[in-house]
Amino acid sequence: MPDTHPRANGERVLADLNALRALGTYKSGVHKPTFSEPHRQSLDWLVQKLPEAGLAGAIDGIGNIVGTSSKPGPKLLVGSHLESQNYAGWLDGPLGVVYALEAARVLNADHSVKGAVEVAAWCDEEGHFGSFLGSRSYVGQVTEAEIDAARDRTNGRAMRDALSDMGLAGRPRITVEPGRHVGYVEAHIEQGDTLESGKLAIGVVTSIVGIWQYRITFIGEQNHAGTTRMAVRKDAGLALAKFCVAIDERFPAACGPRTVWTTGRITLDPGAPSIIPGGAEMLFQIRDDNPAVIARLEELLRTMAAEASAKGPCTANVEKIRTGAPAMMNADIQDAIEAASKELAGGRFIRMPSGAGHDAQMLATIMPAGMLFVPSIGGISHHWTENTADADIVTGAQIFVDACRRILNR
Amino acid sequence: MPDTHPRANGERVLADLNALRALGTYKSGVHKPTFSEPHRQSLDWLVQKLPEAGLAGAIDGIGNIVGTSSKPGPKLLVGSHLESQNYAGWLDGPLGVVYALEAARVLNADHSVKGAVEVAAWCDEEGHFGSFLGSRSYVGQVTEAEIDAARDRTNGRAMRDALSDMGLAGRPRITVEPGRHVGYVEAHIEQGDTLESGKLAIGVVTSIVGIWQYRITFIGEQNHAGTTRMAVRKDAGLALAKFCVAIDERFPAACGPRTVWTTGRITLDPGAPSIIPGGAEMLFQIRDDNPAVIARLEELLRTMAAEASAKGPCTANVEKIRTGAPAMMNADIQDAIEAASKELAGGRFIRMPSGAGHDAQMLATIMPAGMLFVPSIGGISHHWTENTADADIVTGAQIFVDACRRILNR
C-alpha cells in the first residue's frame, strides 16, 4: 500500500535549523541568551514563517509566540524554545520549534487531517531570567511582580528593561484558552547518551524529573590573607569546599537509582586574591522523578549544614529556591509517538524519563502533554559541540509530524 | 629638658584622614578602587596639599604622585597608597600617606632638620590592575607592555582605558633618581592582632613576607546537569573542592610556623545552575618570609595536582602567576623607629615581620627601606570595619615624624 500520509520535508527542516544557527552563531553552536539581539531575530524569523503554515501570531508581552489557526476541528499545540544557554548548542530548543513549524506546514494544509497544529515558542526556557517564565506565563503562573523582580542571571539586567528594549513593554501576555487544545507535544534532543548508545532513533518520554534548587551559603569572617594566622581564620570558601566533598561522600547512600545532583556555581565574597572570604555561596540542584527521594536528600542536606555549623568555624545555611514537581506524560500521546516510531523508524525507540526539565512539564499541568527525544551525539548538550546526525534529525521530524497527525485524527 | 623637636599635629592628621574617608565612603570605610572617581579625587586632594609641605608634584602616567622638595640636604622618601580594596577600610594606605604628608609639613619647614621629607602615593598597591604597579613602575620594573595587558580584576576594564579616562594617557612615568634618597619609610596599619593583643603602640617591621600566587585550574567535561549520570560525570567544580580540602589536610605538615595560604577566588565554567562545570579555577596564595618553605609547599602543590590528574576524572594544573621575594627592612631605619618609640610610646613596641605585602618591599630593592605598624582593632582589615583608635593614630604619627627626623639628622 503506497504511503498516502503527509510527510515532513527533511531538507526544509535542516535548512530552517541552519537558518536559526546563523543567528548568534558561536563556533558550531550559538550564543543566543534570552532577549539578546540574535534571540530577537530568531523570534522575528518564526513570526514571519507562521503564515507558511496557515498560522497567525506575534511576540507577546513576555516574549512568547503562539501561532493560531482558523481551521475548524481539534487543535494540537506543539513547540519548544528559541533562546539558548550562553555559548551553547544549536539544537536545544530550535529543533522542537522547527519540527512544530514543519508539522503545521505539512498537516494544516492537508484535508485528510482533522483540525490543525498550532506552533508555540516559549520564552526563556533556559532560565536566564527565571524558571520557565514563558510557558509558566501561558499556563497562568507568572505574576507581574515576578517579572518586576526578574533579572538576567549573567549581567543583572532587569527583565523589565530587557522587555522594553525588545519593544514588548505593555504588550498583553497570551494565556491558555481552556479547552482549545487536545494536547501539547514537544520534540527535543535527548541531551544524554541513552539513545546513541542503544542505536535508537526516538525516546518516548514517560515523565520529566522534578528539579529542586538550593542556595547554600556559608558565613565566616572576612580578613587579610597575609596577617591572619591559619589557626584563627574563619574561611567561608574552605567551609564550602568541605561541604561539596561531604555531599559527594554522603549522597550516594541516600539517593535513588536515577538521582543526579550538581553544584553549578560557586561565589566567594569578596573574591579577591588577598582576602580570606567572609562569605561563600553555592547553587545546588537535585533532580529525580520521585519526590520522596528528593525529600530524603533535602533532609540530609539540612542535617549536614547543621553539623557543619555546630562544628564551626563557619555557619552553613540551606535555602530552597526552586521546587519542581515531576510531570507525567500522557499515555495516549506516548502511544501515538510509539506507533509513529514503529512505522517510520523500524521500532528503534525506547520509553524513558527525561532528566532535563522542559516546557512540556508546565503545559502538562493544564492539558495532556507528551515529548519525543532524538539522539545527541556523545550525549553532549549545553555546550557548543552539541549535535545530532542529520539523518536522525530528519527521522525525528518525520515521526514527530506523523505522531501529530495520529493525535489529531484520533 | 624641654622637648624642642618638631612634633606631629595629631588633630591635623585625624582631620586629613577623615577628609580622605569622605571620598568614596562605604559604611565606616571606603570603596575606592584604583582609578575610580573617589580615587581620582583623593589623588587630587594630595596634589593640592603638597605645597603646605614645601613640595611640588603631580599625578604621573601610572597614577603615582611623588612630591619633591628643593630644600638642600638629604632627602627621605616616605609614603603609601590612596586606593582601597573593594568595599574596605579607611586606613589601609591613607594612614601612611597622611603620616608622610605630616612629616613633610613638620620637618621640611624646620631649620633644625637636615634636608627634607618627600611624599609619595603609589598607585594600585591593592592590585586591582596588577601587582604593585605604582611602586614597581617607580623602581623601573614595569614595561609599557605590562600596562597594555593590565585589566581591572573586578570588571575587566583595560588599564589603558582607565588611564585615559583619568586624563593620564601619554604622561611620563616618574622613576627613581638614583642617589637622591637616603631611604624610604612607610607607615601602615598592622592588619593583624599582634599589637592589640600585646597592648603595644608600634610594630617595627623587620621583613616583609614574600607572596607566591598560583592559578590552579581543573578541566573536566561540561554537560547537562539533568541528563548526565553521576557515574560518567567529569565535574571540574567537585575536583576543585576536593583539592581545597586536600590542601587543608596536607599543608600543615609541610608549612613553617608563620606560613599562611588562601584561596581567594573560585570560578566555575560556565557557572550556570543546570550545567556540570567543565572547567574550574582557583586563585591560591602562599605567604612566608622563608623561600625554602615556599619551595617545599609549591612542590607539594604540584605533586597533589599530578596525583589528582592521575586519579581522574578531571585534570589539575598549577600555574605560578606571581613570585614575591621576601624583603628585609634596613637595620638603621629599624633603630630610628625603635628610638622614637622608646621616647614617645614608653617602649611599647615590638619588632615583627609583615605578613602583608607593601610598596616598601619594592622600594627595598633600590634603597634602604623600613616600615612601622600601628594597631588594628580586632586585627581586622580588608573590610569596612577596619579601624584604629584615634589615640593610636596620633601616637603613630608622632613616632613616624620623629623617626624621619632621626634618619635625616643622622
Overall description:
- The structure is a homodimer.
- Chain A has about 400 residues and is α/β, with parallel strands linked by helices.
- The first copy, chain A, folds into 2 domains: about 10-210 and about 325-410, Zn peptidases (Aminopeptidase, 3-Layer(aba) Sandwich); about 210-325, 2-Layer Sandwich (Alpha-Beta Plaits), CATH 3.30.70.
- Chain A has 12 helices and 16 strands.
- In chain A, the strands form 4 sheets. In chain A, strands 3, 4, 5, 6, 7, 14, 15 and 16 form an 8-stranded mixed β-sheet that branches. A 4-stranded antiparallel β-sheet of chain A has the order 10-12-8-13, covered by helices on one side.
- In chain A, strand 1 (about 25) and strand 2 form a beta hairpin.
- In chain A, helix 1 packs antiparallel against helix 3, helix 8 crosses helix 9 (about 290-310) and helix 10 crosses helix 12.
- The longest helix of chain A is centred in the C-terminal third of the chain and has 21 residues, at about 290-310.
- The first copy, chain A, is globular, with a radius of gyration of 23 Å.
- The two termini of chain A are about 20 Å apart.
- The model of chain A has no long low-confidence stretch (mean pLDDT about 95).
Give a quick precis of the structure.
With 410 residues, the first copy, chain A, is α/β, with parallel strands linked by helices.
